[in-house]
Amino acid sequence: MSVDEFREKYESLNIPVVIRGAAKNWPAMKKWTRQALVRKFGAIDFTVGGYEMALKDFFACSDGCSDDTPLYLFDPLFGEKAPELANDYTVPEYFARDDLFKLLSDDRPHYRWLIVGPSKSGSIFHKDPNATSAWNACITGRKRWIMFKPNQNPPGVYPSADGAEVAQPHSLVEWFTSFYEFANKEGALECVCEPGDVLFVPSGWWHMALNLTECIAITQNYVSVANLPKVLDFLDTKCENLVSGLDKNRRGGLSDRFVAALRASGDDALLAIVDAHARKKTSATQKAKSIIGDAFATASASSFSFSF
Ligand SMILES: O=C(O)CCC(=O)C(=O)O
Predict the structure, then answer these.
(1) Which of 201, 203, 212, 222 is the best mutation target for the ligand 1 pocket, counting ligand atoms within 8 Å of the beta carbon and taking the most?
(2) Is 215 in the pocket of ligand 1 (CB under 6 A)?
(3) Residue 245 and residue 204 share a domain
(4) pLDDT tens track for 91-112
(5) Domain match, 155 and 262 both
């Protein structure tokens, strides 16, 4: 698939696609065997279930594990902890044009993760942070994915109104056992990614990934011209605790800092999107004010008054 075809048929329409073999020439494809990783980085701590754990200990735990919810290594700082790992891959050409959070330099939210886990590990249903889109490259092993459109809650999955909490079965295995049979009828998309394949996960799509074997993967989340309006909407309308990937004290005001950085870029296409977003916000505020104004007018016409 050409880059133009990807943008036209998938990215701009916010539709997922697997690009087979898009990562097949990465150095990581040859270098990232479990043995080689343990030899070079075994003593380095990576983030596993919210805790720091040496890579060699993580593999030792995984080997003895027959749980339905095995430990999962999911580290947003692998590039700082083991810079050589970040040199073993490049952003696939389909996604290389823009990564607009880059404009925020060190103030950008987390954007790349090393992911390692045994069979039955994986990610339960979620939407990606800050309304970003993502690509996920399978380097070793096989990863099964199930996805649903943004407005279609997966069966057995109940998000709170603001999306902050998602009630669902505790493990992927339990979801498959209890709800998989309803997935097709509800419009699920499914695929299995093999080594070298890259999945495009568009903004707002529900997705889960189940590792069918031990898997090593890299994922990156990004903001492009295509999903920028969604990201701006998200940063504006959600409470700051829903902003993800930044320290608590830097979440507030991310929207303003991002808009300022986009304006400072001087890029006409970005300015047009930022201006359209500002116009939409103004008209939504005016509409809300006029609804409130009408309600007060009606209330006072009918002599309603608060008794305090
Ligand atoms: O490889 C996985 O476990 C999926 C990761 C994922 O869905 C994500 O990073 O949003």
Answers:
(1) 201
(2) no
(3) no
(4) 999 999 989 999 999 999 999 9
(5) no
